[in-house]
Design a protein that fits this description.
Structural class: alpha/beta
Radius of gyration: 20 Å
CATH topology of one domain: Dihydrodipicolinate Reductase, domain 2
Shape: globular
Number of helices: 14
Number of strands: 18
Strand content: 25-35%
Mean pLDDT: 95
CATH architecture of one domain: 2-Layer Sandwich
Bound molecules: NADPH dihydro-nicotinamide-adenine-dinucleotide phosphate
CATH class of one domain: Alpha Beta
CATH superfamily of one domain: Dihydrodipicolinate Reductase, domain 2
Largest sheet: 9 strands, mixed
């Protein structure tokens, strides 16, 4: 049915690419393009004999719009799936506009020199994408992504009005290292060391990092400490869910992770301010990334499960209603299937699904969209089919 250019070949891309190759009817041809082409070639060699999807590879610096345009003009994909880093979102969107090609990503744009992520930069492309007749789907991972689809599904099928959303992201996995991150360490540490915030009564409430802690008993995982963080889907859900009064995002962290992070912060290792080291300018956080375990190497060592979902509270037929939608994913099952841990798996599968819905026309609508703005039903069906089945509960424990 289609031909897709996939940019990036890290942990998330490895899962998305293998899932595209399991779905060869839709993904007839893919080109894997990344900074280090040897990684693309190694992945191609691993999977090309197991799939009907025709795979090619290319070297690409996705910070350079002209290079991306040249590759798109040569390969002529129907869509570009951006699985590089948030820093490359705008250069890739510019290239898609110039070539009138659909665009899908999993994380919102972040400038390299400021630890700040928000949708304003990408929402600024709405009119241009509409005029060009092409679709951009923003944040087709798990959170954002599946959490956004869960919200649209809850609104469509279970509520007249949703007033409260608590997004709970629990990683009950253990990789045996005292400190490692489950996805790109630089992006992950920028996210968790930032101030927290939540949306309430029409405005943002800011908190100190890790200031708000709760304990929650997660299905199939058990009791975990979780902390309130700022997270990108809050920004779009606050606009797109009518009647919303409060949205919060909580993520679980173990004590060892937090103690190490505090220590690294205290000694300046998480800073993104450049420093001079032996006559060369380096960024401490990028140096830290170089010494930490590669998230892609955690797969064989990680045991346990993730449980990520949303608790909704609102009204149906004049009565108060509560509804919890979530997915439980087992790290070792993911490793057995694709050689990845569950964090990459839970992001890579929705990336493939969002791209599939653009290619097959179900989500093909000119403009720039967050996932909750589109019909959730085909996405929910695809989650069950492609490895992330969801569960629901009508009487969940609530977060105070
Ligand atoms: P990795 O660091 O494992 O992979 C990033 C890939 O992008 C690498 O292959 C890297 O190349 C490539 N890359 C980086 N810069 C460039 C560039 N300038 N040109 C071309 N290629 C480049 O990251 P992850 O796979 O862990 O994360 C991928 C994305 O997924 C991130 O944006 C992350 O924020 C997002 N994410 C989203 C989640 C969600 O639920 N929505 C959850 C987790 C992650 P090289 O191999 O040379 O380093």
């Amino acid at each position: 049915m289609g031909r897709v250019l996939i940019i990036g070949c890290g942990g998330v891309a490895s899962v998305a690419i293998q899932k595209c190759c399991q779905n060869s009817e839709v993904f007839e041809e893919i080109c894997i393009a990344s900074r280090t082409v040897s990684k693309c070639d190694a992945l191609k060699a691993k999977i090309e004999n197991t799939t009907k999807t025709k795979i090619t590879t290319a070297q690409l610096d996705a910070d350079n719009t002209d290079e991306i345009i040249a590759l798109i003009n040569e390969y002529k994909p129907d869509a570009v799936l951006n699985l590089a880093l948030p820093y490359q979102d705008l250069t890739i969107m510019d290239a898609c506009l110039a070539t009138k090609t659909h665009y899908i990503d999993t994380a919102n744009y972040e400038p390299k020199d400021t630890a700040k992520f928000e949708y304003s930069w990408q929402w600024a492309y709405r009119e241009k994408f509409k005029e060009a007749g092409i679709t951009a789907i923003l944040g087709s991972g798990f959170d954002p992504g599946v959490t956004s689809v869960f919200s649209a599904y809850a609104l469509k099928h279970h509520f007249d009005e949703i007033n409260y959303i608590d997004i709970l992201d629990c990683n009950g996995g253990d990789h045996g290292y005292p400190f490692a991150t489950n996805f790109n360490p630089e992006i992950n540490i920028r996210e968790v060391s930032a101030k927290g915030s939540y949306w309430e009564d029409g405005h943002w409430v800011e908190t100190e990092p890790m200031e708000i802690k709760r304990v929650y008993n997660f299905d199939e995982v058990g009791e975990k400490d979780m902390y309130l963080l700022h997270h990108e889907e809050i920004e779009s859900l606050a606009l797109n869910i009518p009647g919303i009064k409060r949205i919060r995002f909580f993520m679980t962290f173990g004590q060892s992770y937090l103690t190490h992070l505090k220590c690294l912060e205290n000694v300046g290792m998480t800073s993104i301010e450049p420093i001079m080291y032996e006559g060369k300018e380096i960024i401490p956080l990028q140096f830290l990334k170089a010494v930490l375990p590669d998230p892609a190497s955690l797969g064989p060592r990680t045991v346990g499960k993730t449980n990520i979902g949303c608790i909704f509270q609102g009204k149906k037929d004049g009565k108060d209603k509560t509804y919890y939608l979530y997915n439980v994913c087992d790290h070792q099952e993911c490793y057995k299937e694709l050689g990845s841990q569950a964090i990459s798996y839970t992001t890579g599968v929705p990336a493939m699904i969002g791209t599939m819905l653009v290619i097959n026309g179900l989500w093909n609508k000119p403009g720039v969209y967050n996932l909750e703005e589109l019909d959730p039903d085909p996405f929910m069906e695809a989650l069950n089919k492609w490895g992330l089945p969801w569960k629901e509960s009508f009487n969940p424990e609530l977060v105070d």
